[in-house]
Specification:
By secondary structure, the chain is of the alpha/beta class. The protein is built from 34 helices and 27 strands. Among the domains are: about 170 residues, Rossmann fold, CATH 3.40.50.1010; about 220 residues, Ribonuclease H-like superfamily/Ribonuclease H (Nucleotidyltransferase, domain 5); about 90 residues, Up-down Bundle (Taq DNA Polymerase, Chain T, domain 4), CATH 1.20.1060.10; about 140 residues, 5' to 3' exonuclease, C-terminal subdomain (DNA polymerase, domain 1), CATH 1.10.150.20. It catalyses: DNA(n) + a 2'-deoxyribonucleoside 5'-triphosphate = DNA(n+1) + diphosphate.
Length: about 900
């Protein structure tokens, strides 16, 4: 049970208190989340917006943690009319149009609630408020404490000593407790009279006009004087002044408002409060949904900390009850004991690939280096060795180094590259690794975003890992058999890794991923570790100059903006920008949002084309320069003492198989903009080397699409000798290649790549800035010329729907259970993934094979040149003196022969003293 922050008036049900019913107004809170989080920063690679789902889930996590409800439900509005629309035709008329990114997130949020164990409820003809009022009434009658999370003030009429409204404040995490005293203090009336006050004041959001000139203070004063709205109406002639006359003139509106404001407490529902007990969560379902929505792991961790998990999380554990824990017989080795233990339990021949040792390393790693604080080795018998590197004598060190390096003594590890870096920093090598449980799990379920050992043990073994019990630093108590709590936990991790590797090996055999693990991903770990250790040289002085230049440009943009407007204002404040753009300068209104009119980048770009004002362009320039300054600052912080930047490559992040890069992310430095190219100038050839060489694949996604579809016209376009996109435009538009202009070429290029990424007609229209109808016609014309592509794309989705997955040319699978989902949004999202995964995934496979071949050829050829980076489809090589021509030939050959497609794998090569000059 999670410890709860208690307020004086609350008691926790966990402490023997009465049941606590939590009711959430679904659309109200989802809209709050939508407008609180920027939609442009929350979305999947397939275009599904996720800010409302993420924000709603975050709010629910906080509520479950802080309030510990025993019963939970979310009430949702339905799209049809309610009884209030029948009473008043203008009810809720004039509301702003719902943002197009919002509706598709509602069913996703409802799915998440169901998976968590929370009941979703709605009722035809009624609003969510009425559902909540009915449940609150039932809960009070049943002796429950009731909490209502809603941004609708109508809920205040439900407040009693036993019912509190949690009303959103300025942020998602700010929920104010509106009990009877809080309502009285805020509005000057008791909760039972709040409906009277609202009837007088009106509600703009519901299109309910109140009495002109009468605000909450005047309304409260009248109610205090007369006691109720009914009495006020009876004695209407006693209300003096203009306000009194307005009241009498608008009495019908007030009475109508009062009728409409009243919440219904006897709606017929599919479930009563007794059936709203918080259920067991479907952890596997949550994982799948979070993976599809591409949520970061921190939200998942916070959610799992507060929800109950059912038996379903033990999927893969086999028959019978899940086994709790792991059996290990731990020896915490002191000086002189490591060699003895290894000779007894892990001698040559004692371990096999089917019965390997489990290895767990405690320490830190990243940016090409690491540190080992302790390590554990567990053999199939359960015997486990704990080692503190600081306590080893010469014989122990030699024996341990020999064991770790021995390719004939098989080992399994979780997060192989981290162990390589940490051990390598101590001068130890690591050989004989036959599985990495994180990589194996990634190949089995590439859509997952999290491959934590504890989670994998629950899912595949049905077991719980032992929690660490003391501080952040590993300590081993050599005076006691078994070591300290953390020492024992490390031995358990080694045992868990070993057991997990066996289960995952069987899983990969079923899913066709064994070859990828052993022939691609595991060998690549060693290559990536060497890339990270090497890093790439950076020109610090040049970066500092760029930083100053971008900072000065940002300041100049601020000054120019102030000159244009004639006063100072905060360029980073949306509220102040709205005032300046739409009120002071009276520019055309952009898309309506909750806080006014949007001032995002798209809106500013639109304003720049619609008006003669210089300001939108200046604001965009300020944002660009500020972002670039931040990028350069981030790079400067990562330059090591050796003058090189050591990024970290991740193999288990992108579901398509692509590598990603962090600390810093070198894959997001733009290459097609002048500024991006200037940043690339900062990456230079290092001391002792002659130049940098870059080699990348030309149009690899389209070549793969030609290969997979077998479309003859597409294959011929590659073999025509003409510019590929111009040749394709020629066929689509029925004109000679020489007549294809830049606009036609750009449209076809966007179309071709868009199809490779699962782009819809609407998405294409947004990308090209054309009407959806024109984009649809363009797509139809494209398919008329390249029908094989259309047939292939249709077949990919149909086949994936039948078997449940897509597959790359090397057999990398992407499982998409949502292809058969009843939820349209989830189904369409899965269809876009099905279109995208085989092409992007095949490109990822090919560049990985190319890396392995290039690295092996350089090693076998005795070259001093080395690969430094892989960025998307590009390799960056640091060339040693005198090796330029041979390395170029080697790289071109190995990359070009990585896979035999129906069209050639085009490889472009360039060289220079820095990354920019090496471009081609």
């Amino acid at each position: 049970m999670v410890t709860k922050r208690e307020t004086p008036e609350q008691t926790s049900p966990a402490d023997g208190g009465r049941p606590r019913l939590l009711l959430l107004d679904g659309h109200s809170m989802a809209f709050r989340a939508f407008f609180a989080l920027p939609v442009e920063k929350f979305g999947t690679s397939t275009g599904q917006s996720t800010n409302a789902v993420y924000g709603f889930a975050s709010m629910l996590v906080k509520l479950l943690r802080d309030e510990e409800p025993t019963h939970v439900a979310v009430a949702w509005d339905l799209s049809g009319p309610t009884f209030r629309d029948e009473v008043y035709e203008g009810y809720k008329g004039g509301r702003s149009e719902t943002p197009p990114e919002f509706p598709s997130q509602v069913p996703l949020t409802q799915d998440l609630m169901r998976l968590i164990g929370v009941t979703n409820l709605s009722a035809p003809g009624f609003e969510a408020d009425d559902v909540i009022a009915t449940l609150a009434h039932q809960g009070g009658a049943a002796g429950m404490e009731v909490l209502i999370a809603s941004g609708d003030r109508d809920a205040f009429q439900l407040v009693t000593e036993d019912c509190t409204v949690l009303y959103p404040g300025k942020s998602l995490s700010d929920l104010r407790r509106m009990d009877p005293d809080a309502v009285q203090d805020k509005y000057g009336v008791s909760p039972e009279r709040y409906r009277d006050l609202a009837a007088l004041v009106g509600e703009k959001a519901d299109n309910l006009p109140g009495v002109p000139g009468v605000g909450p203070k005047t309304a409260a004063k009248w109610i205090q004087k007369f006691g109720s709205l009914e009495e006020l109406v009876t004695r209407a002639d006693e209300v003096p002044g203009k306000a009194g006359q307005n009241f009498r003139d608008h009495l019908d509106d007030v009475l109508r408002n009062q009728r409409l404001n009243k919440l219904v407490t006897d709606v017929a529902l599919d479930a009563g409060v007794a059936e709203l007990a918080l259920g067991e969560a479907d952890r596997a379902g949550i994982d799948a949904l979070f993976d599809n929505l591409e949520f970061a792991s921190n939200l998942r961790e916070r959610l799992y900390a507060v929800i109950r998990s059912g038996r379903d999380e033990a999927e893969g554990a086999g028959d019978g009850e899940p086994v709790e824990g792991f059996e290990v017989d731990v020896t915490a080795a002191g000086t002189g004991q490591v060699a003895v233990w290894l000779a007894e339990h892990a001698a040559a021949g004692a371990l096999t690939e089917r019965a390997p040792a489990g290895l767990a390393v405690e320490g830190v790693w990243g940016q090409g280096t690491g540190r080992v604080d302790a390590l554990a080795v567990t053999v199939p018998s359960g015997a486990s060795l704990l080692v503190d590197p600081t306590l080893l004598d010469a014989a122990d060190t030699e024996a341990l180094a020999a064991f770790l390096a021995d390719a004939d003594r098989p080992k399994v590890v979780h997060e192989y590259k981290g162990a390589l870096l940490a051990l390598g920093a101590h001068g130890w090598s690591l050989g004989g690794v036959v599985s990495d449980s994180a990589l194996a799990a990634y190949l089995a379920q590439p859509g997952q975003r999290r491959f934590d050992l504890a989670d994998l043990c629950r899912k595949y073994l049905g077991r719980e890992l032992e929690e660490d019990t003391d501080g952040a630093q590993m300590t081993l108590d050599l005076g006691e058999e078994g070591g300290s709590g953390r020492g024992h936990a490390l031995a358990v991790r080694a045992a868990a890794t070993r057991d997990l590797a066996g289960v995952l090996a069987a899983e990969l055999d079923k899913r066709g991923g064994t070859h990828l693990l052993h022939e691609v991903e595991l060998p690549l770990v060693d290559v990536l570790a060497r890339l990270e250790r090497a890093g790439i040289a950076a020109d610090r002085e040049y970066l500092e100059g760029l930083q100053g230049e971008f900072a000065a440009a940002a300041r100049g943009a601020v000054e120019r903006a102030h000159e244009i407007v004639g006063r100072e204002f905060n360029l980073g404040s949306p509220k102040q920008l709205q005032q300046v753009l739409f009120e002071d300068l009276e520019l055309p209104k952009t898309k309506k949002i909750k806080s006014g009119y949007t001032t995002d980048a798209d809106a500013l770009a639109w304003l720049a084309t619609q008006t003669d004002s210089e300001l939108p362009g200046v604001l965009l320039h300020h944002r660009d320069q500020t972002k670039l300054r931040t990028t350069v600052e981030g790079l400067l912080k990562t330059v090591g003492d050796d003058g090189r930047i050591h990024t970290t490559f991740n193999q288990t992040v992108a579901a398509t198989g692509r590598l990603s890069s962090t600390d810093p992310n070198l894959q997001n430095i733009p290459v097609r903009t002048d500024v991006g190219r200037r940043i690339r100038r900062a990456f230079v050839v290092g001391a002792g080397f002659e130049e940098l060489l870059t080699a990348d694949y030309s149009q690899i996604e389209l070549r793969i699409m030609a290969h997979l579809s077998g479309e003859k016209a597409l294959i011929d376009a590659f073999n025509s000798g003409y510019d590929f996109h111009a040749q394709m435009a020629s066929q689509v538009f029925g004109i000679a290649v020489q007549e294809v202009d830049g606009e036609a070429r750009s449209k076809i290029k966007a179309m071709s790549y868009g199809l490779a990424y699962g782009l819809s007609a609407y998405g294409l229209s947004q990308q090209l800035g054309i009407e959806p109808a024109e984009a649809k016609k363009l797509m139809e014309d494209y398919f008329a010329s390249f029908g094989g592509v259309r047939d292939y794309l249709n077949e990919v989705v149909d086949q994936a729907r039948k078997v449940g997955y897509t597959e790359t040319i090397l057999g990398r699978r992407r499982y998409l259970p949502d292809l058969t989902s009843d939820n349209r949004q989830r189904r369409e999202m899965a269809e876009r993934m099905a279109l995208n995964a085989p092409i992007q995934g095949s490109a990822a496979d090919i560049i990985k094979v190319a890396m392995l071949q290039v690295d092996a050829a350089l090693t076998e050829g005795g070259f001093a040149s080395r690969v430094l980076l892989q960025v998307h489809d590009e390799l960056v090589v640091e060339v040693a003196p005198g090796e330029r021509e041979a390395v170029e030939n080697l790289v071109t050959h190995e990359m070009g022969s990585a896979y035999d497609l129906r069209v050639p794998l085009g490889v472009s090569v360039g060289s220079g003293q820095n990354w920019h000059d090496a471009a081609h």
